[in-house]
Amino acid sequence: MVAIKEHREETPSIRTMRLDGKMQGTAGQFVMVWVPGIDEFPMSLSYAGDGFGITYQILGDGTKALAAKKVGDKIGIRGPYGKAFALHGKNLLLVAGGAGMVPLALLAEEAIEHRCSVTVVIGARTARELLFETRTATAGAKVHISTDDGSKGFKGFATDLTKSVVAKEQFDSLYACGPERMIVGLLEAANERGLPMQASLERIMKCGIGLCDSCALDGKHVCTDGPVFKEAELRRFVELGKTKLDLSGRKVPV
């Protein structure tokens, strides 16, 4: 159980909690968050080390209960779990869709600390929902913006803006997190340019340690085999961007 040190609004639907204590996780890893009496669910680390943190989107009962917590309240944390992003090359492109920016903001900071040049494409439905734009720019990343409604930056999807960016500049690796259909589109773009790619996948997780099978994807467990996968693994996933398991274990469209 850890105490909440800070609880702030990032966008109208996204909040960040900084927590008391230290966690030596790295970008791409996640923790299981327990709200007593409500639920336990996975959250990507958005900050590591002292005052580590999680950033979450308010969607269901669990995150609504989390949003009601105040500074000084305690929540349960176990982890970190999963495979993290691995730095490859010196000129890196990071592409996020919506809350997919959570692990990529931490990755941008880690990469810049390792003297990498970082370009970030941040996509959101509207300008008000853009996440960590100032944070990544302050860290030293070059930031490109896309919004579905055109309220800021490029009007359209992050995948379309990414294709424009890679046509103008050479990168050593592409990193992505966001909706699976976005991941599939980026995988095609990376393949066309022979660009190594890593992506963090988001699936329902109940245990976080490979026991419950709720995050199964073509024989892999996203919680233990991922959540970060390389392009060769991503290309082998038949279900990627097409189907997933719901809370009851039924296969449903993504």
Describe the structure.
With 254 residues, this protein is an alpha/beta fold. The protein has 2 domains: 2-81, Translation factors (Elongation Factor Tu (Ef-tu), domain 3, Beta Barrel), CATH 2.40.30; 91-200, 3-Layer(aba) Sandwich (Rossmann fold), CATH 3.40.50. It has helices at residues 61-67, 101-113, 133-139, 158-168, 180-192, 222-225, 231-236, and strands at 2-11, 14-19, 22-23, 30-35, 39-47, 49-50, 53-57, 74-81, 91-97, 117-124, 142-147, 154-155, 173-177, 197-200, 216-217, 220-221, 228-230, 243-245, 251-253. The two termini are 34 Å apart.
CATH class of the largest domain: Alpha Beta
Q: Provide the CATH superfamily of the largest domain.
A: Nucleotide-binding domain of ferredoxin-NADP reductase (FNR) module
Q: Architecture of the largest domain in CATH?
A: 3-Layer(aba) Sandwich
How many domains make up the 3D coordinates?
Answer: 2
Distance between the termini: 34 Å
H-E order: EEEEEEEHEEHEHEEHEHEEEHEHEE
Structural class: alpha/beta
Low-pLDDT segments: none
CATH third-level topology of the largest domain: Rossmann fold
**How do the strands line up in the largest sheet?**
12-11-10-9-13-14-17
Treating each run of at least 4 consecutive H or I residues as one helix, how many helices? 7
Tally the beta strands: 19
Task: Estimate the global geometry from the Cα principal axes.
Answer: globular
Largest sheet: 7 strands, mixed
What value does the average pLDDT take?
95
Strand content: 35-45%
Cα radius of gyration in angstroms: 17 Å
- The residue fraction in helices comes out at 10-25%
